[in-house]
Amino acid sequence: MPASLPSPMLAELRKRSAAVRDADPAAQGPGASDLRDIDRRLLAAFRWLDEAIAHLEVIRPVVAHRFTLEGVATIATPRYDRGVVSYRRAVLAGFDLIERLELYYRMANDLPIRVVVPPAAAAAMEERLRGAQLDFSYRIEHDDAARTRRGVFTVVPAVMAAIRFVPDYGRGVVVVSLRNVDRLEPVTLDFAPAVIGEPVLEDLVRLMLGEANAFLRRAPLAGVGAASARQAAAAAATTLAPSHYGRTSK
Hints:
This protein has five helices and ten strands. By secondary structure, it is an alpha+beta fold. It folds into two domains: 36-111 and 158-250, no CATH class; 112-156. A five-stranded antiparallel beta sheet has the order 3-4-8-9-10, sandwiched between helices. A three-stranded antiparallel beta sheet has the order 5-7-6, with helices on one face. Strands 1-2 form a two-stranded antiparallel sheet. A hairpin with a 4-residue loop joins strand 8 (158-168) and strand 9 (173-179). The N and C termini lie far apart (49 Å).
């Protein structure tokens, strides 16, 4: 059976789309060299951060942040405790590329925090503590006459933080999400891959330690437009449970 003749419509569409791509380089999308450059930069970031957090674990510096759960508890100037950085690879756009780079670390003080609430308010308090990724225990206490009951939460004065670099190879950006880094809430930024290098990573560590916040000014907030908002939410939605505190496979 003879091959089908090329469609005149497709030929015209090819011609017109080629003209648009030639006139607007951004319409061409990222090429193989762009994808590999993002991958290379993230791999270099992994190596840099891996060494940096190993040194921080030895030094255990004080972190100049106050993590406040309004009306409940404040964990002020904890010490850096330990951390782990990892990355995962996947086949994306036909190439073996880094899918995401993750840094988890723990900051802690020594003395537990005691939070007393009426038993009826215990469920709401538990929800707030879990939402802030704080570990705790709960018990009911009575007075000497066993008449008055109160709920007592014992909160571990430790903050688990997470930083994720999630490359969006289609858009040519790296979405960086911060959770519990300088506050008990997420922040998500869109970084141009070309700026991800040692100066940015140095600013990131300074932010982690509470020395400066220049990192937050190096990129715009993510979430402009519906699609970006969905991507930002997906990048920020990370669980900091202890079961996730470990090096993942590469």
